[in-house]
Automatic annotation (TrEMBL):
Gene from which the chain derives: iolG_19
This protein's record includes keyword Signal: yes
InterPro entries cross-referenced by the UniProt entry: Gfo/Idh/MocA-like_OxRdtase_N, Gfo/Idh/MocA_oxidrdct_glycsds, Gfo/Idh/MocA_OxRdtase_bact_C, NAD(P)-bd_dom_sf, TAT_signal
N-terminal signal peptide: 1-21
EC number: 1.1.1.18
UniProt-recorded name of the protein: Inositol 2-dehydrogenase
MF terms in GO: inositol 2-dehydrogenase (NAD+) activity
Length: 459
C-alpha cells in the first residue's frame, strides 16, 4: 500500500467514528462520515448509465447507487463509451463537489491515476471482470455492480486476483445490507426454521422484443468500445414506448435480455435472490451438483446453446430450474410467484423480499426475540449499516465486506449454470470442487467466453 493511501485510511478511521456528530453539526451530505474533504477517498467511475442518470420521458433524473456513493467518497474521474451520458454524469459530479471530474472514454486513465483509491464499476456485466481485475492489480479497491461476471470462468479469475492482491471488493447485491434479509439469515442460524432444506427464488421473467433492424449507432455512442470483450455484432435498435430507454436495442439497459452480454433474469434478479438463498442455506463455499431445467421458454430458437435469431431478445422469458446440492438442499429458480425468497425448513417457513418478511418464525419474535447481537453476528460481526458505508468501512479497515467476491462467485455460478442448462435444455452435472461440468463438453465450453482481440484482460 502506498504511504498516502495508508495515511488517508488512518484519517478515515477517525472521521467515520464521528459520523453522527458531523451530521448534527450541520455538515452537508457530501461530508457524511468524513470530517474533511482531503480525508475522503477519491473515486473513479467506469460506466455512468442507469446508476447515474437517465433520460426518461424528457426528464433527467439521478438514479441508483452513484448519488448514495457520494456520501462517503468524491468522484474525481469518470468514464463511459457514451459521450452524452459522460457529460450528464460530469455535470452531476460538479453539482455534488463543485469541481468537474476528469472525463474520458478510456477506463485505463482511471487505473493509471495514483490519486484514485476506489473504482466504481457500473458497466454492463460483459465488462465487469476485465475492469475489476485490472483495477485490483492497479492497487485499487472496487465496488462492482451486480452481477459480478458474465461467466463462471471470470468469477474464478476474479476470486484468484482478489485473494492474491488483498484488495477490498464489494458486489452491489445490496439486499445483504437490508435489515429484513439479515433478519432472515439470523432466524435461520438461530434454528427457528429447523433444518432448512429448500429455498425458492421467484425472480420474474424476461421481456420479448419485436425484430430489431440494424441501424447506425448514434454518433455520441462508441458501439465498438461498448461491446469490448465480446464477439462483435451489428447495432440493433428500434424506438418505441417501452422500458427505461424508450426503445428496444442491444445497448443501454436492454443488454440484459441478450445472452451475448448477460444472463437475463437468471443473473439480473437471480444475482440478488440466489445470493440470499445461498447465504441462508449455508452454501457460500460450494456449489450445486446438478442443475435441472424443469421448464424453460425462450423467445427464439437455439442451436448448441446459441440463439439462431440475432434480431430479437433471446434470454429465457419463463423458467423453472432446480439446483441440487451434495447435502440434498435445493434452490429453485422460477419466473412466476411473488418476487422474493421462500425458505422451507423442518419446523417452519419464511418468506422475505424487499418489502416484507413473513412467516411463523417472524410472528414468534413477539414472544421469543432473537438474542442481542444476532443480526450483527449474521452481518459478519459488524454494526448494521447501508451497503455503501459497509464497503467504505471495509476499504478503510482492509476487511472483507458483506458482499464479497468469493461468496458471490459461488452464488452466481448457480445462476450461470441455470443459464447453461436453460440454453441447452438439459440437466447439467457440476463438480463444485473442481468447478467443472461433468460429462458434457458442450456445457463445459459455455462456462467461459473467448475475449475479442484487443480487449483481453491485462494481467
Amino acid at each position: 500500500m502506498k504511504p498516502n493511501r495508508l495515511s488517508r485510511r488512518r484519517a478515515l478511521a477517525s472521521s467515520l467514528s464521528f459520523a453522527g456528530a458531523a451530521v448534527l453539526a450541520g455538515r452537508d451530505q457530501r461530508a457524511l462520515g468524513f470530517a474533511a474533504a482531503n480525508e475522503r477517498p477519491r473515486v473513479g467511475a467506469v460506466g455512468t448509465g442507469s446508476r447515474w442518470c437517465i433520460k426518461a420521458t424528457g426528464i433527467d433524473r439521478p438514479y441508483g447507487s452513484a448519488p448514495d456513493f457520494r456520501r462517503y467518497g468524491d468522484y474525481v474521474a469518470i468514464c463511459d463509451a457514451d459521450a452524452n451520458r459522460l457529460a450528464m454524469a460530469s455535470d452531476l459530479v460538479k453539482d455534488w463537489t463543485g469541481t468537474k471530474p476528469k472525463a474520458s472514454a478510456d477506463y485505463r486513465s482511471i487505473l493509471d491515476d495514483d490519486r484514485i483509491d476506489i473504482v466504481h464499476i457500473s458497466t454492463p456485466e460483459h465488462w465487469h471482470a476485465k475492469v475489476a481485475i485490472e483495477a485490483m492489480l492497479a492497487g485499487k479497491d472496487v465496488y462492482c455492480e451486480k452481477p459480478m461476471t458474465l461467466t463462471i470462468e471470470e468469477g474464478r479469475l476474479m476470486s484468484e486476483v482478489c485473494k492474491t492482491t488483498g484488495r477490498v471488493v464489494q458486489i452491489g447485491t445490496q439486499q445483504r445490507s437490508s435489515r429484513q434479509f439479515i433478519q432472515a439469515i439470523a432466524l435461520i442460524r438461530a434454528g427457528r426454521l429447523g433444518e432448512v432444506k429448500k429455498a425458492t427464488c421467484s425472480i420474474g421473467g424476461a421481456p420479448t422484443s419485436p425484430a430489431l433492424p440494424v441501424v447506425a449507432p448514434p454518433k455520441h455512442f462508441d458501439w465498438n468500445l461498448w461491446q469490448g470483450p465480446v464477439t462483435e455484432s451489428e447495432f440493433h435498435y428500434l424506438a418505441g414506448d417501452y422500458g427505461e430507454t424508450k426503445s428496444w436495442s442491444r445497448g443501454h439497459y436492454e443488454f440484459r435480455w441478450w445472452y451475448e452480454y448477460s444472463g437475463g433474469k437468471l443473473t439480473d434478479w437471480g444475482a440478488h435472490h440466489v445470493d440470499i438463498a445461498t447465504w441462508g442455506l449455508g452454501l457460500t463455499e460450494t456449489g450445486p451438483i446438478s442443475v435441472h431445467p424443469v421448464k424453460v421458454k425462450h423467445p427464439v430458437e437455439f442451436k448448441d446453446g446459441y440463439p439462431v435469431d440475432h434480431t430479437r431478445y433471446n434470454t429465457a422469458t419463463e423458467f423453472l430450474i432446480t439446483a441440487t446440492f451434495a447435502d440434498g438442499k435445493e434452490i429453485e429458480i422460477r419466473h412466476d410467484g411473488d418476487n422474493g425468497i421462500l425458505f422451507e425448513g423442518t419446523e417452519g417457513r419464511l418468506f422475505v423480499n424487499r418489502g416484507r418478511i413473513t412467516g411463523k418464525p417472524v410472528e414468534d419474535l413477539k414472544t421469543n426475540p432473537l438474542p442481542a447481537g444476532a443480526l450483527e453476528e449474521a452481518y459478519k460481526n459488524r454494526p448494521l449499516t447501508d451497503h455503501f458505508r459497509n464497503f467504505f468501512e471495509a476499504a478503510r479497515d482492509q476487511t472483507e465486506p458483506i458482499s464479497d467476491v468469493f461468496s458471490h462467485h459461488r452464488a452466481l455460478s448457480t445462476c450461470h449454470l441455470a443459464g447453461i442448462a436453460a440454453r441447452l435444455d438439459r440437466t447439467v452435472h457440476w463438480d463444485p470442487k473442481q468447478e467443472q461440468v461433468v460429462g458434457d463438453p458442450l456445457a463445459q465450453s459455455l462456462i467461459a467466453r473467448d475475449r475479442r482481440k484487443g480487449f483481453e484482460i491485462e494481467m
